[in-house]
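Hi there. Long-time user, first ticket. I'm pasting a complex I've been working with (about 333 residues overall). I'd like to know whether the download I got is complete or cut off, because the file seemed smaller than I expected. Thanks.
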Amino acid sequence: MQQGLGLGLRIGIELVVAIGVATGLGWAIDHWLGTRPWGIIVLFFLGVAAGMLNVYRAVSGISTPVGYRRPGEDGPAPRPSQDAWDDDEN
Amino acid sequence: MAIELHPLEQFAIARIIPIHIAGLDVSYTNAALMMTIAVVSVTALMVLATRRAALVPGRWQSVAEMLYEFVADMIDSNIGQGGRQFFPFIFTLFTFILFANLLGMIPYSYTTTSQIIVTFALAAVVFILVTTIGIVRHGFHFLSLFVPHGVPKFLLLLLVPIELLSYFIRPFTLSMRLFANMLAGHTMLAIFGGFAASIGLFAFFPTGINVLLVGLEFLVAVLQAYVFAILTCLYLSEAIHLH
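Hi, the file is complete. Here it is re-exported in full:
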């Protein structure tokens, strides 16, 4: 339960901050390079995508780290144990 | 009569000992004072509790041992192998944020973690540490983090910038989460407190809400310290166990 509550509070802000920071970055790039309005448009959509990706990862148990599962959930499935009748043959 | 409400006044920084070095204002402020108190009280708890360590722990020793085991469990279940060497860092981070949050719940004290620069500094330390460890351990291979497996080449053109962005946004989400939660919670407490002070007869209603909110704030204070620490664990785990 503790983990679920932590997760719930975590993902709320993930999307908002991703969009906010990306759009701010786009604005800054426009400001420096004089490419208004393209930087802000492109980075806004990239920010939306990154935010959704982060939320998806946080929720789907792949966890926030980009693309990797938590230890314990990861790795190949445990090898099925040998059948019982194999034991006394070797 | 009108009572003036200043719900944001509690976050004002006040210089206690003004210090100016080479035109820089490095005064010792109330925020710095609360950070000092947090560090001193964590240290005092750990040192005093384990000074006369007994096999059957007393009250204070139990508290210290519970804190230790909580963080150790968190590291074992989230980083796994090779995680224990980061125990001092994560334990320091967790207890500092926990104490800073909880000390802020004392009336008339100051919540250090409601300052974005404090939480951002913490998050930046985590981000730089994780990136450095990733690069030191894996070298150039660390960049494979940004290239998803099994994706057509032309899609990489779109996906790599998204992955990069979602990586570099981490210090911002990490700091914003803690900062926004503490700021919002304490502002809300002050607003309902202000209502109670200004409406006279029906004050029991906002006061009742405030009682509930104080409970919620204690939960948030502990939970946000936990979330900060567990995300640090996950980021470290990713940098260590890069595939």
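A couple of notes from our side: The mean pLDDT of chain B is 89. The CA atoms of residues 104 and 111 of chain B lie 4 Å apart.
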